Amino acid sequence: MSKRQPAAVPTAEAMQRERDALELRRAGATYDAIADRLGYTNRGAAYKAVQRGLRRTIQEPADELRQLEVERLDRLLTAVWRSAMGGNLGAVDRVLRVAERRARLLGLDAPTKIETEGAVRYQIVGIPPELLS
Q1: Using CA of residue 121, residue 127, residue 130, residue 132, what is the dihedral sign?
Q2: Is 39 in contact with 21 (CB distance < 8 Å)?
Q3: The CA-based dihedral angle spanning residues 115, 119, 125, 131, taken in that order and rounded to the nearest 10 degrees
Q4: Domain segments of the chain: what residues?
Q5: Mean pLDDT along residues 15-29
Q6: pTM flag (> 0.85)
Q7: Does residue 6 surpass a pLDDT of 70?
Q8: How many Å separate Cα 74 from the centre of its chain?
Q9: What is the C-alpha separation between 48 and 126, in angstroms, rounded?
Q10: Rounded Cα gap, residues 29 and 50, in angstroms
Q11: Which long-range contacts (CB under 8 A, 24 or more apart) does 49-54 make?
């Protein structure tokens, strides 16, 4: 079994091409036209560039917002840390709540395992039983 290679970090030029492809598509250009104008090998490559551009358009603001939220949580944690370490139980509770929220935001908590037991019964409707044997 072959190991997946890590994704190459796109160059600034490649990212600009993706943005240009996305803008052309938004303006109504076909994938063939985008490929011709931006030098992609075919319409499939232009399509993939537009899709990557869309993902980045969504992902980058989400990453920035996540980082902003982490910074806010860090400031809150700093504000109550000394009091919590001094034994203030209310502050300890706040530290734990901020830490829990931060862990959820960053995906640090292990996924919850759900154990299931029992049997599954399938019922096929609309097919006579003699056709199933």
Answers
A1: negative
A2: no
A3: 130
A4: 12-106
A5: 90
A6: no
A7: no
A8: 22
A9: 42
A10: 11
A11: 49/17, 49/18, 49/21, 49/22, 50/18, 50/21, 50/22, 50/25, 52/18, 53/18, 53/19, 53/21, 53/22, 54/22
Distance CA 119, CA 13 (A): 55
User: What DSSP string runs through 95-127?
Assistant: HHHHHHHHHHHHT-SPPPP----S-------SS
Please give the structure tokens belonging to residue 32.
């063939």
Q: Tell me the two tokens of residue 75.
A: 């400031």
Q: Are 98 and 76 in contact (CB under 8 A)?
A: yes
- Give the whole-angstrom CA distance, residue 41 versus residue 43: 7
CA terminus-to-terminus distance, the chain: 38
